[in-house]
Each structure stands twice: as C-alpha cells, then as structure tokens.
Write a structure and sequence with these properties.
The complex is a heterodimer of chains A (147) and B (249).
Chain A: H1 2-19, H2 27-47, H3 52-74, H4 79-86, H5 92-103, H6 107-146
Chain B: H1 2-20, H2 25-38, E1 45-49, E2 52-56, E3 64-67, H3 75-89, H4 95-107, H5 114-131, H6 139-159, H7 163-183, H8 190-198, H9 204-215, H10 219-246
Helix pairs in contact in B: 1-2, 1-3, 1-4, 2-3, 3-4, 5-6, 5-8, 6-7, 6-8, 7-8, 7-10, 9-10
The chains are: A mainly alpha (147), B mainly alpha (249).
Chain lengths: 147, 249
Amino acid sequence: MIIEQLVTSFFAAAAFGVMFNAPKKSLIQSGVVGMLGWCVYAILVYQEGVDAVPATIAASVLVAILSQICAKVYKTPIIIFTVSGIIPLVPGGLAYDAMRNFVQNDYNMAIQLAAKALLISGAIALGLVFSEIVNQVIRKAKWKRIS
Amino acid sequence: MENKNEIINICLLAGKIMLESGAETYRVEDTMTRIASSFGESNAQSYVTPTGIMFSINQIEPTNFIRILDRSTDLHKVAIVNSISRSISGGELTVSAASAKLKEVESITHAYPIAIQILAAAIASGCFTIMFEGQWLDFLPSFFIGGFGYSAMVYFHKVVEIRFFAEFLASFFIGLLTYLSIDIGAGQQMDKIIIGSVMPLVPGLLITNAVRDLMAGHLVSGLSKGAEAFLTAFAIGAGIAFVVSVFPF
C-alpha cells in the first residue's frame, strides 16, 4: 500500500517536472521532494485518519523545507522544486467533486466540498509561507551574530 | 550612454525571458535590479506585472516598457537566466558577453520534445489515479485519457485564441472518453479516472506563484495570477460538468 504510493508519487512529481520543462538535472530531486511530501500526507490521511487540512499543512511545510535545502545546495530557483512537490496536494479531486455536485443540483454538498477545497488551498499557502518565514528568521539571526 | 542602453537592454531581456517562462514576479524584479546594480547602476527601478514590465535605470532616465503577451512554463529557462544573473553579480561576465548569452537563451526551445511531455502527462495521470486510492485496473485507462487530454490542450492552445477555451475543451474530451471507457467496460471507477486525467491541466504553478507573490507584497501580480488560476480551474470544472450533466450516471 505505502510502497505503491511512494512509487507513483515519485513518478507523478518527476513527470510534472518534465511538463514544466524543469532542468534534467533536477528531475530526480523534485521527484523525491514530491514523494516525501505526498508520503506525509498519505500516511496522515489514509492510515492515521487525520483531517485533510492539517495533513496538507504538514506536507507542504515539509515540501517547502526540502525545496529550500535543494535550492541552496543546487543553486537553482526554489520554484523548480516546490511546484512538483505541491501538485499532488492541490485539491483537484475535491474541486471536481464540488463541481459535480453543483451540476447535479446538490448545492449543500457542493458548497461543503468547495469550502473544504478552499481551506486546503489555504493550507498549502500557509505551509509554503511558514518555511519561508523560518528561513528568513534564521538568515537574519545569523547576520546579526556576524555583525 | 551607449553602455547604459546596453545595460537597459540586458535587464529588459532577462526580465522578459523569466516572466514568459513562468518565474515569480518578485524574482523577476529582483533579478533585473540585481543585474543593473552589478553593472554599477544601483538605483534601478522595476515594476513587473504578469502582462508587462516597466523598468527605469534611475529616476531621471526615461522609463522603458515591455508588453508580455505569451506566458508559458519553462523552468529550464528560469534556471539558466538565474545562473547568468548570478555570474553577472559575481563579476564574471561583461556587458556584451551577458547580452550574447541572454540572446542565446531566448532562442532555445523547450528542454523536452512535445511527445515526451505528453508521455509525462500520461504517466502522471496514471500515477495520480493510484495515489487517490484508485484501482490498478484503472491505471491504463487514465494513462491514455490523461495523455490524450494533455495533447488536446496543447493542440487547442495553438488553434484557439481564447486561453480558457482550450482547457474547457480538453477536460470535456477527458470526461467524454472516461464515460466511453466505463461504457465499454475498460474502466471501473469514473471519479478516479477523471481526477487522475485532469491533474496535468490543473494550474498548480499558477497557484504557488500567486501565493508567493502575494506574500512577497506583490499584490497586483498575486491577485491577477490567482484570478488566472481560478479561471483555469473553472474552465476544467465546467468541461467535466458539461459531460456529467449531458450523460446521466
């Protein structure tokens, strides 16, 4: 179960790298970033039964931290790694379900699902920003110590 | 004076390539002012929105403007321009060498041929079906439908002027093909196949860029990119919804 999730998420993230024309050298790294992010999400949601919103925050924080590290180490823009890591977390399935319920005139269900999709998008944003803030704090703190 | 014009040209070209390849707005502005300051113009101003770049090398010089009509995703070029800007900051490139290098970057084509990209989209679709707890039986249907959907989007983007219509048509065909595959017994779970096949069309890059731009204080770019992402998502949803409402399940 977890093995198939690991393998498929690695290939999915790397394939997104190809679709976005990411440099060939960074495909494997972005695949690994996507795999680990999705791994956290899948374990929390499918096995531990955690709600999707906190699970998304946890996964996107991890993706953002890993991408910061990769960007530093390989000296490439961070966006190359974040994009393929974030893609699996984007609530495409929920948005689809919401749309389908709208069409079938089940507005109560549709609004519920749409609100959930909105919250998850917000969670992705929160996770991305959180790691950036931590990074900035660390950088500023170091700088003060030197001067 | 001659030199100043050359610097302006380099900054504008670097900004144009980055913005057209899908870099974040704040990165484009940062790169342009950084290049200018490493060539000795420390007071350069740049204002970047998703549809245009305004750049002035200092307050008293006239402001230059570039209109961006075509935006695609090419992270390879973003990375190359980023490394060129790094070596300019490090003082390794002269003005004319940098200009030549950027012109070379502008003319290179995509890093991967279109067939490879379609194959990648197909693989991603199949994998996503499994990731969303679909059955392995549905891997092949979503592999083919996802690949077809992505190639339909690439084709319609070339043919149709209206941007969101291509996404609408592509997701319409995805819905239609999924319906057919269920009908002939090739696919099992309609929802999982559709979600998997639609993933390559989802505007993930736009969403991340919009968030990062908003957080970096680029409110105009963040909101307009967010609007673009919302319209794309809406077009995809509408295409699927159209199929669902025409064919009863």
